[in-house]
Amino acid sequence: MSLNRVVLIGRLTADPEELKYTPSGVPVTTLRIAVNRVTKNDQNEYETDFFNVTAWRRTAEFACNYLGKGRLISVDGRLQTRSWVDQTSGQKRTSYEIVADNIEGLDRRGDGPEGDEGRPASRPASARTPAAATRPPIDDSDDVDPFADE
Asked: What pLDDT does 145 receive?
């Protein structure tokens, strides 16, 4: 038996990236979350860890439509690794990311440390529109969700 489950609570470091679509029309976005550690370091300061998060389908649409920089969110998902060979240097590279099954906003708009700045309400309407027809699909075959048929 094995288990791969990650639950994080932290703040968005920036607005989620613009919603993209796979060639088959599946929405996807990425975001970055800052999570403070619960213990202090030797300098008596709290350290912060930063995590890349990928969201698919309705979770991606929710993140792009309703979440913005500074919002306190919870992410429930799994840890995933990707490996590739860097075209420039020829070195093997590995990245780790959280693939979100669920994302929730834990504060209200305007409750974050930056007030209302950077909130989706200040974004153009096109950035809040979840319809796939508003943007042409992109060819991002490296990021195809292996669980798309579930």
From this structure: 54
Sequence-distant (6+) residues with CB within 8 A of 135 are 19, 20, 21
- pLDDT for position 148: 52
Residue 32 clears pLDDT 70, i.e. is over it? yes
Q: Which two tokens stand for residue 107?
A: 């504060």
DSSP one-letter string for 63-100: HHHH--TT-EEEEEEEEEEEEEE-TTT--EEEEEEEEE
Distance between CA atoms of residues 25 and 57, nearest Å = 9
pTM above 0.90? Answer: no
Single-letter amino acid, residue 14: A
CB 93 within 8 A of CB 86: yes
CA distance 85 to 89: 8
Tell me the torsion sign for CA atoms 19, 20, 22, 23: positive
